[in-house]
Design goal:
This protein is flat. Strand 6 and strand 7 form a beta hairpin. The chain is about 55% helix and about 15% strand. About 25% of the residues are buried. It is of the alpha+beta class. About 5% of the residues have low confidence. Helix 1 runs antiparallel to helix 8 and helix 7 packs antiparallel against helix 8. The chain has 17 helices and 11 strands.
Length: about 525
């Protein structure tokens, strides 16, 4: 029998994961193109709507509630009939299919209804393409992991053996299994429905607010691919799709490995985490532990443990413990690879780091975890401070995490500004409307609490719910002036943060001018 130490299994597992990862990255580039095309098509539809019905380059919400002309409805019905004839028959798309079929037989269709239907059509094309592309990816990933695991075991025992070829239905069966709480098709449908709903809300709100076609197009693009798409930093629904595909690919890879364990009679497996700053504490705590194959539980003792999980397993043979140790790869906070003993666990690796290295790893993990928060926070800082804001997201992050003094100065500047910190929603005449966050206040003043003779009546409730002391809370009032309305806004404030913001009254500016 050919002797292979633990290092062999680790290196082979890492190679297998990397090969499947490369497959996923190749498909992701195709997926980006699909999202980009869908975003472009939707923006084109919006532009056509404006060109047809806008007056003085403005499109009122009332115009979109008018009915299509006969020739427009005939064109719209032709597009719907083509879709219905060629649409996916997947059960989970029944809701959209039913909605479009109802529109196709209606004698009268509103312009807004037609626009929302076109959003569904483009979304269906996008997610059909995504579903077909990922199925091909999962088949390749399963096949690669299944046969690579067999080859590695044959190398270990120094012989080959016959085994059954995976059934074509294997992938379908795996994807129907709700290992993360939902089946793969349900996860795709939830994403598609969320995408359509968000675009519809953006369209409706934009038309009500009188936004230009350029502004609406930009918002649609952000929802689909994110602001930083062309900088290699996709967000929006594309980011969600990437997370789903990478996590599902990890599930397929590890299931293929498990299926081959069963085929070859591997009784035990060892959990293999990655020795770098991205590995979470939970996965790191499982690194090096071995389990009985029949007792594996996905998310408990078998990967993937969570979205984006990069962990895998290797066969466990007790005799390996007596062989030469070998080495495994670790990655430092600087991103460079180096080698450590193969029997070193994640916990031992972390404990062996210097305090400086540990600090860098914690910081790197914090920055990665806060990516979305930091981007949102930077946009807020940029909108409020203008030229006083850091130049770019990288400079902002460097300041936030490495220059406490400057970061405190930024926060102090933010607190001194007169603006609405969070979107203020309200209902008027049955419609749900809102005042955007970062809207500037006029005539702000303190009416109760600290630095005022009038006490806050609900101070005990505020302290119990949000903290602080009686002499640190204030009740404030201010005005917001839009093109059409003047709003009176009240809120409670603690350390520059607004709580329980309310619109107390609204008046029409035209009435004020009379």
């Amino acid at each position: 029998m050919t002797k292979k130490n633990k290092s062999y299994w680790q290196q082979r597992a890492e190679a297998k994961v990397l090969d499947v990862e490369k497959m996923g990255l190749t498909y992701e580039s195709q997926m980006k193109e699909c999202f980009l095309q869908a975003s472009s098509n939707i923006q084109t539809d919006i532009t056509k709507l404006y060109v047809r019905y806008a007056k003085d380059n403005k499109l009122s919400y009332a115009e979109t509630l008018k009915y299509l002309r006969d020739d427009e409805r005939a064109e719209f019905k032709h597009d719907l009939d083509y879709y219905i004839k060629n649409a996916s028959n997947a059960d989970y798309r029944f809701e959209h299919r039913q909605e479009l079929q109802a529109l196709s037989v209606r004698a009268r269709v509103k312009r807004m209804e037609a626009m929302k239907a076109r959003i569904i059509l483009e979304s269906e094309k996008l997610f059909n393409s995504l579903e077909q592309g990922t199925m091909a990816l999962y088949h390749r990933a399963y096949d690669e992991a299944y046969h690579r695991t067999a080859f590695d075991v044959f190398q270990k025992v120094g012989m080959g053996m016959a085994f059954d070829k995976p059934s074509p239905n294997t992938i379908k069966t795996l994807l129907e299994y709700p290992w993360s709480g939902k089946s793969y098709s349900q996860s795709l449908w939830d994403m598609e429905k969320g995408f359509v709903d968000n675009l519809n809300r953006t369209l409706t709100a934009g038309l009500i607010q009188g936004k230009s076609v350029q502004e609406l197009s930009r918002q649609f693009s952000d929802e689909a691919i994110g602001k930083d798409f062309y900088k290699g930093k996709p967000k929006g629904t594309l980011k969600k799709a990437q997370r789903l595909v990478r996590t599902e690919t990890a599930f397929i890879l590890n299931q293929a490995t498990s299926d081959m364990y069963d085929e070859l009679g591997v009784d035990e497996y060892e959990f293999l985490g990655t020795l770098d700053s991205k590995t979470c504490e939970h996965c790191g705590g499982l690194d090096g532990k071995h389990y009985v194959s029949d007792e594996k539980k996905i998310g408990i003792n078998y990967p993937p443990m969570h979205p984006w999980c990069r962990c895998t397993t290797i066969p466990y043979f007790p005799e390996d413990e007596d062989e030469d140790i070998g080495q495994r790869i670790a990655r430092g906070a600087d991103g460079k690879n180096y080698y450590v003993p193969a029997d070193m666990t994640y916990k031992e690796w972390r404990e062996g780091l210097s305090e400086d290295e540990k600090g860098k790893i914690v910081l790197a993990r914090t920055i990665e975890k806060n990516q979305n928060i930091d981007k949102t926070q930077y946009e807020k800082v940029k909108n409020v401070l203008g030229k006083q804001a850091p130049k770019g997201l990288d400079e902002f992050r460097n300041l936030k995490y490495n220059d406490i003094k400057s970061w405190n100065e930024i926060k102090s500047l933010l607190r001194s500004k007169n603006y609405l910190q969070e979107q203020l929603s309200y209902v008027y005449n049955g419609e749900r409307l809102f005042i955007p966050r970062h809207t500037v206040f006029d005539n702000k003043k303190v009416i109760a609490g600290a630095n005022c003779e009038t006490p806050i009546k609900v101070i005990d409730r505020l302290i119990g719910k949000h903290g602080g002391t009686a002499d640190s809370w204030q009740k404030k009032v201010a005005k917001i002036t839009s093109e059409k309305y003047i709003y009176d806004v009240h809120w409670y404030e603690l350390d520059g943060v607004q709580y329980e913001t309310k619109m107390k009254s609204r008046s029409d500016r035209s009435e004020k001018r009379k």
